[in-house]
Amino acid sequence: MRERVRKFLSALVHRRRVPSSLLLFGKEGVGKKDLAFEFASALLCLKESYPPCGECTSCKHMKNFLSKKKEELLFYGEDKTGKSTFLFLRGDHPDFVYLTPEKSEIKIDQIRGAKDFVYLAPALSKRKVVLVEPADSMNPYAQNALLKVLEEPPLHTHFLLVTAHLQKILPTIRSRSFLLEVPPLTPQEIKELTGVDDPLILELSEGSLKMALKLKEDTELLKTAQAIAEGDILTLYRKALEVEKWDMERQLYLLKLLQAKLHRRFLQKRNSSDKQALDRISAGLEYLSRGIKLSLLLFQLAGGEKHALHKGKVSRQQGLSS
Ligand SMILES: [Zn+2]
After folding, report:
1. Residues 99-109: pLDDT tens digits?
2. How far is the CA of 125 from the centre of ligand 1 (A)?
3. Residues, CB within 5 angstroms of ligand 1 (ion)
4. What is the predicted pLDDT for the residue at 311?
């Protein structure tokens, strides 16, 4: 599956038919960002080869870029008022910039700052590349500013946009971009890439390389998810309080894992209560990053049969009595 995407990208490079904006989308953890970097390196490679040759000056600069920490690549400019503002990440490659949020979103100043870059002729390679990732972190002002640039596509510059949330990208940007879906990895591909061969992990990873690697290194995560999904109500309450102390990233992994488990059960049993729980988890994934407590979300999933939901408030009393 993944090879098909790479073959397609390779054909674009070799036929020199690279769109000025390419939007790579697909589920989280399926390797979109790695593909985008590989593609960017190929577009810039002095031998114009895909996969990139890895040897030329351009490829060396790109490798160097990838080996550095974000803090070493921060590039600042000035906003309208003359205040210093983060623009993008850049290393030694004169024809490559990486637009990414400094905190939570990509702002309009960053797009404006990149404009100075995109309309200049390339200095080393035949092309210039702006990688925007995650593209859905552009706020609406930034998206509109980017749209203006795409409406007058700079001659040599290619935009690579990467997102797991295609619906958050303005339809006008989507229609000006070439859309390419990166499919989930097959269990076999994950096995080859990670060395994981536990069938449960392969199944629950649902094609996500990230999840497979996380489950491989963090065995408690899978155990906790199992206890929550299959244990009684008391276990759920106990675990909910425990996971409250986890960091946000681990909490998000746990919710995604619960989602995968419930999804699997839903496919087998077609339970309406599992469907409702799945909807709540989807919403929860969104709310979690906005500060709602994970324990509250988990309490909402409790009650009734294992995961049937109470419509009203969930109290310890209701949970126990059900
Ligand atoms: Zn090269």
Report:
1. 999 988 999 99
2. 10
3. 45, 52-53, 56, 59
4. 34
CA dihedral 163, 261, 278, 211 (to 10 degrees): -20
- Distance (Å) from CA 95 to ligand 1 centroid: 14
- The SS3 of residue 81 is coil
Question: If you measure from the C-alpha of residue 212 to the centroid of ligand 1, how many angstroms do you get, rounded to a whole number?
Answer: 31
Helix (H) / strand (E) element for 225: namely: helix 219-230
Q: pLDDT-based confidence at 229, cuts 50/70/90?
A: confident
d(CA 15, CA 10): 8
Residue 197 Cα to ligand 1 middle (Å): 35
121 CA → ligand 1 middle, Å:
19
Please give the model's pTM, rounded to 2 decimal places.
0.81
Tokens of 39: 């593609």
d(CA 252, CA 277): 16
